[in-house]
Structure formats: C-alpha cells, structure tokens
Design goal:
334 residues; alpha/beta; TIM Barrel; 12-stranded mixed beta sheet; 19% strand; globular; disordered N terminus; binds S-adenosylmethionine; binds iron/sulfur cluster
C-alpha cells in the first residue's frame, strides 16, 4: 500500500493509518529529574539558536493541518519552562484546522500558568504524577515538591480544565503499592487516572524497565477489589478505559509493551530542534529546521512533510530490540 492523501484530505500512511496528531516538544529542558526519564546531572540540551521559534512552529503546524492533522499536544521536557508559552498556545489556537490543543506537564509551575493557558485555548491537560506521597514523589522526581504539583492541579481545576488526566508510570517496588492511594486521590478531585507501562527509552528508561510491570497484573488486582466496567473516555490516544462505579472514577491502561497499539498509531513528534520523530521506539526521523530556515515555499514544505510521514515505521521494537533507542523520552517529546 502506498501513502496517500485521502479524499477527506487526511494523510494515510503506507500502513493505512490516518495521521492526525502532532506532539510538539517546546523544550527539552526540565525542572524535575524523574529517574525513568532524565539522567541525574544531564545537561546535553539543545542550544536556544536551534529551538524552533514560535513563527517556525506556527508555520509547521499550519502546514501539517493542510495534511489533515487537527490535534496538537504541547509537551517536552517540561513545556512550562518555555518562555511565553501562552503566547504560542494562543497563536496555535488560531491556526485554521487545529481542533484540539492539549498540554502534558509535570505541573510544578502550573499554579502560575493554568489560567493563562486555559484562556489561550488549551483544552485538555495531562499531568504526570507517579504517587501522592511527598517523600516518595521527591525520590522519584529527583527532588520535586509534591505540594507544588498539588497547587498546580488545584489552579488548573479552578481555571476550568475538565477533565484533568493524571499519568502514572507504574514500576515494581517503586510505586505499584500506591495505585489505591492514587485511585482515592483522583476520585476525590475528579481526575482521570491513567496507568502507563515503563518504556526502555535511553539509559534511564532501560534501567527503570527492570521494574516493568505488565498492566494486566495491576488490572487483575484491581478487579479483585472493585467492580470494574468498560468506559469510554474522550482523547486522542491509545488508553483503554475501565470505570470503577463505586469511586465514580475512570482508569486508563496504556500498554505500549505488553499490548502495543502501533497498528492504530495516529501521531508523530516534533522535537524542539525541528526534528520530526516518526515513532517513539524507532530512529526514523526527518530534520525540518534547516528546511524551514532555507526559504522553502509552503508547497515545498508540504512535500517535505508528506515525505517525512511516509517514513513512519510499522511498529516499535521495544520488546525485540530494547537497546534500540538511546534518546531519553524528554528529548523526543513524550
Ligand atoms: N514533563 C512533562 C510531563 O512529565 O508530563 C511532559 C514530558 S514527559 C517526557 C511525558 C510523559 O512521558 C510523562 O507522562 C512521563 O511519565 C512519560 N515518560 C517519560 N519517560 C518514560 C519512560 N521511560 N517510560 C514510560 N513513560 C515515560
Ligand atoms: Fe521532566 Fe516529564 Fe521527564 Fe519527569 S517525565 S523528567 S517531568 S520531562
């Protein structure tokens, strides 16, 4: 099968997948050091001159919308570290064709930014939080303060974000004993909880993957404790949802390792330096920064994007080749 622009102008890749979602990394820096993501002391960051400017980002996203991409998620690194982020989200919200704009954050700085981001057009929010025990949180994140995340979450609720999704990476003997606490926390605050399998990205991800737990194991434990029924939850992603009626809570299970979802993968990732990554678990990539800076026409840019998207591989190989990916998650735009 060859790639094509379907009649509804959605790009369909060589494996028949409609690509309609870009995850946009606005920085590779971070104010936390989650041990499964960024190595301690890591400082091999992209130089500011190599970051795509807001003008360049807006141009690429506009070009993507011409191929049918209509969902954008801002991520990083920690996106709230990028200066004037609400200005960028405001600009992207005005790009014709962007129907859904969301943000992934560690929420450390969210208390300050929740309101301006909501007002600038960010519609949905995912917050990474692996436990609600301040001491454990500090240890997992290399010194993070749980209270700041909590304040950020409360500010986000107040600003109007609803629902707010909480992403919890599950690791054996690190936080697998915290799932019930997280369920109570999310039920109390009306958040959606999403459990994620650890992926072997970079040296940190590989080390953390020694603590990998297939989520079916957690699901079975929960089923012994609660009645759980299938649920439907709006979102652009691969989570499978169950609901716990007695808690009035939805839980998503994201299983890239035990049950991959590559055959329905609808996304690509744009790094802060303009490199387009076609898959989290493969090296396939397409450098766009120099192309953008070379005076390329809109039509030529679109041709480059079509060429880039056609490189999207069939599947990741985290299981077959766990040493494949030396990039850490924050460098790709998780
Ligand atoms: N800093 C923001 C945050 O933490 O939400 C956005 C970027 S972070 C790289 C995006 C997501 O990647 C987070 O939910 C984080 O938990 C996840 N992540 C990072 N490294 C991972 C790994 N090795 N395996 C699974 N998920 C990982
Ligand atoms: Fe930073 Fe997010 Fe990576 Fe944690 S997961 S180190 S918050 S980029």
């Amino acid at each position: 099968m060859t790639e094509q622009i379907a009649t509804n102008s959605k790009y369909v890749d060589p494996f028949g997948r409609s690509i309609d979602y870009v995850r946009l990394s606005v920085t590779d820096r971070c104010d936390l050091r989650c041990f499964y993501c960024m190595p301690k002391g890591f400082n091999d960051f992209e130089e500011p001159d190599d970051w795509l400017t807001f003008d360049e980002i807006e141009r690429v996203i506009s070009a993507f919308t011409a191929l049918g991409i209509n969902k954008v998620r801002l991520t990083g690194g920690e996106p709230l570290l990028r200066k004037n982020l609400p200005e960028l989200t405001h600009r992207l919200s005005k790009v014709c064709g962007v129907k859904d704009m969301s943000l992934s954050t560690n929420a450390v700085k969210l208390a300050k930014f929740a309101k301006p981001l909501f007002e600038s057009g960010v519609q949905r929010l995912n917050v990474s939080l692996d436990c609600v025990n301040p001491e454990k949180f500090k240890s997992i994140t290399g010194g993070g303060k749980f209270e700041k995340v909590f304040d950020g979450l409360m500010a986000a609720k107040q600003a109007g974000f609803s629902p707010i999704k909480i992403n919890m990476v599950i690791m054996r003997d690190v936080n697998d004993d915290n799932v019930l606490n997280m369920i109570d926390f999310c039920a109390e605050h009306d958040f959606i909880l999403r459990l994620i399998e650890t992926m072997p990205m970079g040296s940190t991800g590989k080390e953390a993957s020694q603590r990998y737990i297939p989520l079916d194991e957690i699901k079975q434990q929960l089923e012994q404790k609660f009645e759980m029924v299938p649920a439907v939850q709006r979102g652009a992603g691969p989570a499978r949802y169950l609901s716990i009626p007695e808690k009035n809570l939805n839980i998503g299970f994201i299983t890239p390792i035990s049950q991959h979802f590559c055959e329905t993968c609808n996304r690509v990732r744009l790094g802060v330096n303009g490199t387009l990554y076609l898959c989290l678990g493969q090296e396939h990539q397409y450098p766009l920064r120099e192309i953008l800076r070379s005076g390329v026409s809109d039509e030529e840019l679109k041709e480059h994007l079509i060429k880039a998207l056609s490189l999207k591989p069939k599947k990741h190989e985290f299981n077959e080749k766990p040493d494949n990916i030396i990039r850490i998650m924050s460098a790709t735009g998780g």
